[in-house]
Amino acid sequence: MTISQSLCWKSSKELRYHVVSSLKYLGVNPTKIRSQNFLIDSNIIKYQIEKAGINQEDIVLEIGGGLASLTKCLAEKAKKVYCIELDKIFSKFLRDYFSTYNNVEIISGDALKIKWPSFSKSVSNLPYQISSPITFKLLEQSFQVAVLMYQKEFAERLFAEPGSKNYSRLSVMVKLKGKVKYLKTINEHSFYPQPKVKGALVEIKPLNRELNLDIIQFGEFVTSLFTLKGKTVRSALKINFKNTFSNLSEKEKEKLEKLPFIHRRIFSLTQNELIELYNEILRAGWYSSERR
Ligand code: SAM
């Protein structure tokens, strides 16, 4: 089969038929644990591919190939598609399905555990239960753009602003390394079996900027503060970094009171304010001593 031969899915009806009959043929019941809800709306697939601007130069990474719905269309546009699938039945299905394609490589395994090949773009309908770690893993790679389907509530956390209820470590850390754009909400009936929650398509572009920051250490710092996001900086530091802040000398107590944003609540701090606070704490020699 050559790349230009096929027309991907002619209609959503054809795609739905492919998904339902393949599941029947395989004799599998999709599992909720692995987010096995398959796209049955061919227009959404076209939209994803268009938004990612997939062309003959691209090496595409797809996480969670499932029943080939998206993989097939990617294979028709891209130079090469790497498709990672955890489920053994589906990865065998994918291998058989693409046996005559010379630009699709199926990788069986857990996308969180295996080393990813180099790629220029990623288009994936993600397994929702691994959204957070997979996003952080993605942001460690070098690529041009990713168009990803998340659960809508998760996507909202990516865009949450300081002071809002959804503002979290995720909102802070993802925007440190990537530019995120909300593309559109996807209804439950676009999937088979129909999930109980809506999806959302999000575009992520790496910022490729030099950050004068130890991201891992800063991430740990932000994570520990956000476990107490309703508290003030002062209380959160005293609770989370007991060893450092419980027995301060008078001089050090004064220094603590002079930290920036000390009376502000954690959830109100912007990304830049968190970085400023972190740098001040490092400068005072407090944070490194708390770590193992
Ligand atoms: N790409 C297909 C589509 O658009 O219809 C399937 C998407 S479905 C939401 C997610 C897929 O990811 C399932 O096939 C599931 O078996 C697979 N999956 C779940 N956890 C995974 C993991 N840790 N690594 C790789 N694939 C995984």
What does this structure look like?
The protein has helices at 12-26, 42-52, 69-77, 88-97, 131-138, 152-159, 169-177, 215-226, 233-240, 242-245, 250-257, 271-283, 287-290, and strands spanning 38-39, 59-63, 80-85, 104-108, 121-125, 145-151, 178-186, 191-192, 199-206. The protein is an alpha/beta fold. The chain has two domains: 5-206, Rossmann fold; 215-290, Helicase, Ruva Protein, domain 3, CATH 1.10.8. The strands form two sheets. Strands 4-3-2-5-6-9-7 form a seven-stranded mixed β-sheet. Strands 1-8 form a two-stranded antiparallel sheet. It is elongated, with a radius of gyration of 23 Å. Residues 1-5 have low confidence and may be disordered. Bound molecules: S-adenosylmethionine. S-adenosylmethionine binds next to strand 1, helix 3 and strand 3. Specifically dimethylates two adjacent adenosines in the loop of a conserved hairpin near the 3'-end of 16S rRNA in the 30S particle. May play a critical role in biogenesis of 30S subunits. Its main location: cytoplasm. S-adenosyl-L-methionine binds at residues 37, 39, 64, 85, 110, 125.
Quick overview:
With 292 residues, the protein is α/β, with parallel strands linked by helices.
List the helices and strands and how they pair.
Layout: H1 12-26, E1 38-39, H2 42-52, E2 59-63, H3 69-77, E3 80-85, H4 88-97, E4 104-108, E5 121-125, H5 131-138, E6 145-151, H6 152-159, H7 169-177, E7 178-186, E8 191-192, E9 199-206, H8 215-226, H9 233-240, H10 242-245, H11 250-257, H12 271-283, H13 287-290
